[in-house]
Amino acid sequence: MPVDFERLGPVGVITLNRPEALNALSLEMLEKIDSVLDLVERDAAIRSLIITGAGEKAFSAGADIGAMREATALEARAYAQRGHQVFNRVEAFPRPIIAAVNGYALGGGCEFALACDIRLASERASFGQPEVNLGIMPGWGGTQRLARATSPGFAKELIFTGRMCPAAEAHVHGLANHVYPPDALMGEAIALAELIATKPPWAVSASKEVINLALEGDLRGHLARELDLFALAFTTKDQREGMAAFLEKRQATFEGR
Ligand code: CAA
Predict the structure, then answer these.
(1) What is the CA(21)–ligand 1 centre distance, in A?
(2) Domain boundaries, the chain
(3) What is the pTM of this model?
(4) For residues 120-155, b (16+ Cβ closer than 10 Å) or e, as one string?
């Protein structure tokens, strides 16, 4: 299964389980995450959720580049839209969701972590939005949520350069709430999820709803703009070159076309 779900008493743990591709998020995985959320929504005994990645290297290295390589603008838009729907649902989900970032959280992986309420990171974790290296831009909410979680300047630096940001730096910028040794990460995430699970669920859920409102602005409108521009990137030669170069394991040459 590319996505696993496990119950630990009042805590549900969702594990992205495609370690051979660094847990890159396929459409199938997005569908599975959505159906796990359906299940959790029906079970009031699950009070909090943790999302993590299988294996030692990655939380998730992002959207599936192989699946996007030959995409038309409309296909890319549909893929991005499915990501938006699932991550918007994660963000608005009436129970708290903790991202336990055990390794790379890049592109769509970083965007997934950003849609969660709280991010805990392993010392091995690194965050980033490397889409520019592929000739595209973030398409699953990163343009909005990274700036909101950190600062516009830091978000622009990461998005314009595509560089990776180690866990300690992510912590300084508010991207990770806490950083733990790799072996301690899951224990700390479970302890936090269990602590929250002892609190009155209505108060936690209502607080989540209004804290999200504090950050809202016109988030939905801005996400729609991101979706359109993301799709537009798939009409450029630079997108074809960037994704081909990644998959062929060579340096990309961008021509601005
Ligand atoms: N999609 C598909 N496959 C991926 C992937 C991705 N995002 N990231 C890694 N993989 C695959 C690699 O192709 C490789 O597969 P093979 O073994 O079949 O060759 C396998 O996972 C292991 O990866 P690497 O050999 O590259 O591992 P590494 O340790 O040398 O490098 C890495 C690790 C730096 C994270 C590198 O894998 C990398 O740069 N990955 C891509 C990260 C990225 O660009 N993410 C953004 C995706 S686009 C996106 O997310 C758009 C959006 O906003 C919606």
Answers:
(1) 7
(2) 3-197, 201-247
(3) 0.95
(4) bbbebbbbbbbbbbbbbbbbbbbbbbbbbbbeeebb
201-247 is a CATH 3.40.50.720 domain: no
Please confirm, yes or no, whether 209 is among the known catalytic residues.
no
At residue 30, φ and ψ (nearest 5 deg) are: -60, -40
> CATH topology for 3-197?
2-enoyl-CoA Hydratase; Chain A, domain 1 (3.90.226)
DSSP conformation class of 150: S
Residue 130 DSSP symbol:
G
CB of 63 sitting under 6 A from ligand 1: yes
- Per the annotation, the verdict on 131 as an active-site residue is yes
The contacts found for 69-73 with CB under 8 angstroms, 24 or more apart, are 69/240, 69/243, 69/244, 69/247, 71/234, 72/234, 73/231, 73/232, 73/234, 73/235
CB contact set of 101 (below 8 Å; sequence gap of 6+): 52, 53, 59, 113, 119, 120, 121, 122, 125, 127, 167, 176
- Each residue of 79-131: pLDDT tens digit? 999 999 999 999 999 999 999 999 999 999 999 999 999 999 999 999 999 99
Sequence-distant (6+) residues with CB within 8 A of 249 are none
